[in-house]
Amino acid sequence: MNDALVGFLQIFNVQTILWIAMGEVLGIILGALPGLTATMGIALMLPISFQLSDATGMALLLGVYCGAVSGASIPAILLGIPGNPNAIATVYDGQRMTKRGLAGQALGGAVIASFIGGIGSLLLLMLFSPLIAQFTLMFGPAEKASLALVGLTIIASVSSRNLAKGILTGAFGLTISLIGTDPFTNSPRIPFPGIFEKTPLISGIHLIPALIGLFGISQALLDVERIKSGNIAPPQVKIEKIFPSLKKIASMWRIIVESTGIGALIGAIPGTGASIAVFLSYERAKKITSRPGSKLERVGSGALEGVFAPEVANNAVTGGALIPALSLGIPGDAATSVLLGALLIKGVVPGYQLFSQNMPLVYSIFFALLISNIFMLTFQLLGVRMFPKVLGIPAPVLVPSIIILSLIGSYAIQGQAILAAVFDMGVALFLGIIGYFLKKGDYPIAPIVLGLILGGMFEENFRRAVKLARGNYLVFFTRPIAVAFIILAILSVLMTYLRNRKSLVQG
Amino acid sequence: MKRILFVFIVMLLLLSSPLFSAGEKEAQWPDPEKTITVVVPYSAGGGTDLIFRPLVEQMKKFTEANIVVSNISGAGSSQGTNEVLSRPADGYTLLASGTHTVSATLQGLTEGYKQLEGIASLNWDPFIIAVLKTKPWKTMKDLIEDAKANPGKISLGNAGMGGATGVASVGINLAFGEVFNITPFKGGKNLRAAVLGGHADVGIFSQSEILANRDKLQPLVILYSEHSRLPELASVPTLKEAGFKNLDVPGGSFRAISVKKGTPEAIKKKLAEIVRKAYNTDEYQNFMKSKGLIPTYYELDKLDEYFKKIEQAYIPIMKKAGLLKE
Amino acid sequence: MKIKRVIPLVFLIFSVFYLVFAFSMEQRRMIGDQQGWDPGSRAIPLGTGFIMLAFSLYLTFSSRREKNEEDVLDRETRNLVILSILLPVLYITVFRYVGFIILTSAMLFTLIFFYYRKGIFLSDAGRYLWGLILSVLLTLSVYTVGRLVTRFFVRYGKHVSSKLLSGRMFTSLVVLILLAVILAVVNMFYKMFYKRRKGRIGNVSRSNTNRESIDSTLFTAMITATAITEILYLVFKQIFWVSLARGVIFW
């Protein structure tokens, strides 16, 4: 209980609360602007969180995360354009409600749904992450290596319709993580070591500039392509009658419960994310409401039910995705991979160690998530007429700001060493350009990031496991947990392969 | 139009004119607007980091400049060391140096202490060899007998080859005829988890690590000439008492603060003064006592001599282990 | 060349080079590993290299069969994308030498200006150069005012030993307010100047409206570039003590 108090105090101080509030507002704005994703928002805030204490830094990022996920519903409802993939299913009924003149209720409902989903998944996170973390004490090098393998293969198979593309970019991420020196012998692993040994290349590619480049700069470059098509006009809709009645909300209990479950579960599966969860929950809600005898409005006709289901689900993903991130060190979706990166950079080791030795930090993450959700609710409801105005921010101002913030943010991580810092800017830009072209070619970015995060974990534990087993490579098949992980990895690849083939034959 | 623009530019120039007079002469060290960075070559929250952070907190009291800790980990401790060497010798970048620096230098990973000059040293943190309580070995003798009977079967984990635990583990392995399977882990945290989880048999730990896991770990021997100053660990025997009279394994980590060679003498003296004041505060002294750290204070030239002594103790081991790069 | 076909090809070439590189790497085992139980420093790079080779080969061939229509960018947009890539490259290359303030202001102005123009046109060159100079000068003056004020408060705060006055939050806040005031004043001047000019010209021809829109673009770009540069400076340098390269600015 003492830990909880320490965690509580780390969050409930003026400074931290202010940072969360700032992150929340920033998140809502970033989320509402089409073309800017939640992941990008978090990546852009990484350099700032890096300068703050562990708890405060995480709290800031969580604020951005929650804000960005819920902010996306604003343009989805008012304009029929989702702010980011979190709101792609909110568009259908949200837009129809606006056309029916119920814009206010759609916006208010979406916010309340987000809040319910966020709190629900927070409870699940608090319940399950310590339980799963307990398991990790049993994980030796062999298990850890197989776990990293699972993370890599699942994300490679889920993140793209083309399995080969996912594996290819995942392997590419691994090669990036291998740059620098060998962790065990310190022998250089860079091209032309004679020449580059004294350059920052020898310390390898740092995670934060890579994340900023892959998520920030690449997206900004894509946004440049849309500049010519002009700006979105801020919507001219009357927003009134924000609160749906309590009776109405209570009548949707089934949708709420199921969507929370779907969101948290999908979020917890590495590599999947909100975009899958929202569609699944939307489909479920459709089924529930179209049952004979159901008193609910039919989803699809511009009903609040159709807004509630995806909005509960996408915020439930936030808590769900943190479960494997905190307990296993495997992020549940792209946004949490950045959050995980923020933890790793601070020297926090997820899993049993985090839950046994750094419980105050865990509690402070829980509290920060709670506050973020409360702020999200209050800010969105108070600013329900104000936030739609940010849609008027002109892209010609926005895009350069993102580019420069990405560059300076990458610089700031090693801001005391100018040469290394300039190198980091180069890393961000280089990976940003690569990410831009890959996105244009329909290649997934997430496996690169996972390769970067899990590459070191995989290599070190693989070699350590073999060394501990006295050179026996079959050690991975002698330990039950490791075998289970390997089967999981093979299954994830096989299932995707079979599914793809089936769809090919049918199509 | 052009004329108006011209007027506008002149106005701006006038506005920015004070800047040409504002370029004042370089202020005395330390410039209160500048930042002194203490580079800790290990990740935040690690053993080395925990010893320097409280000192930096105290140092803040004695200087006007901002002091920040910057954790630059990787490649043993050589990445952080190289980072310090790549920056100007102006007294604004300090290195958390010590046994790890000596070890990294001897391995040829960095120019290391050849390019560094000592400011002040802090303390020794002696290592303790420990196993999980559920393992069959209760004394060092048990362990060594078993290891000699089954060479290569018992794994001895360290917290990374580049650092002091790495050298100690190699030293022990050599002293007992290379009977252990030496396996490096990434930092003390991971080594602890591996030994507690039963994945590595034997580990080399600092005193505070043993203290934090006293109910699970069985300390076998302390690698120092004296007993631990912590009452809880005072009963742990030294190598000599454990029955190995003629063995001398340098075990423990020594921590100091260094700067790049060529830093002006006046600045070094001022720095030493700041560190000395911080070191002598009650807060830091109590901190050392609570962690069982053995105060070892040397300053400037004396410290450089002391480093030489450590080097002399390390060279034979490193040579035997094939680590030495000449 | 279609991008979907080029990417696997690039990956193919990369993986070949990577394999060559991996093979040329020294195979070292863990220190103290006399028995050779460690898979060695080359094991994983080789493994990843082969995986990349295999899948990029597969994708190179399978992408030939794929029929995909791609949206081709029009010339102006393509130019803008190229500008958005090349300018940051230039920014990073000269960052250490020119310094944060000047470069950031210049880059922001350039990007904002051309984005607003929706393309790079030669006819904008004159206006652009004017704007660039003005924007850098404006940023410099704001920066200078900010430095002077900050120094004053740091000194004065130390003098009266007030932690608040010499603190980074307080000084940043003061500079931020000053920034807003300066930009508001500049905005006022601009508005006054335009009203006068409009009154003088009377009949507004087409070319004049076009010019007017360039001028307002230029002005917006200038103000935004200055504001963002100074805010970034305050956040990263003044609050978080990141040593942003000074470059040619010595004060």
Care to describe what's here?
- The complex is a heterotrimer of chains A (507), B (326) and C (251).
- Chain A contains 22 helices and 2 strands.
- With 507 residues, chain A is mainly α.
- Chain A has one domain.
- Chain A has a two-stranded antiparallel ribbon with strand order 1-2.
- In chain A, a hairpin with a 6-residue loop joins strand 1 and strand 2.
- In chain A, helix 7 runs parallel beside helix 15 and helix 13 runs parallel beside helix 15.
- Chain A starts with a helix and ends with a helix.
- Chain B has 326 residues and is α/β, with parallel strands linked by helices.
- Helix content of chain B is 40%, strand content 19%.
- Chain B has 12 helices and 11 strands.
- In chain B, helix 3 links the parallel strand 1 and strand 2.
- Helices cover 76% and strands 0% of the residues of chain C.
- The interface between A and C is large, with 66 and 71 residues.
Point out poorly predicted stretches of chain A.
none
Total strands of chain A: the figure is 2
The count of helical stretches of chain A stands at 22
From the helix content, strand content and strand pairing of chain A, which structural class follows? Answer: mainly alpha
Helix content of chain C: over 70%
Tell me roughly what share of residues is in helical segments of chain A.
over 70%
Q: How do the SSEs of chain C run, as a string of H and E?
A: HHHHHHH
The domain count of chain A comes to 1
Mean pLDDT of chain A, nearest integer? 86
Major sheet characteristics of chain C: none
Q: Outline of chain A, from the CA principal axes?
A: globular
Strand order of the largest sheet of chain A: 1-2
User: How many domains of chain C, as an integer?
Assistant: 2
Chain-averaged pLDDT of chain C? 85
Tell me the radius of gyration of chain C: 27 Å
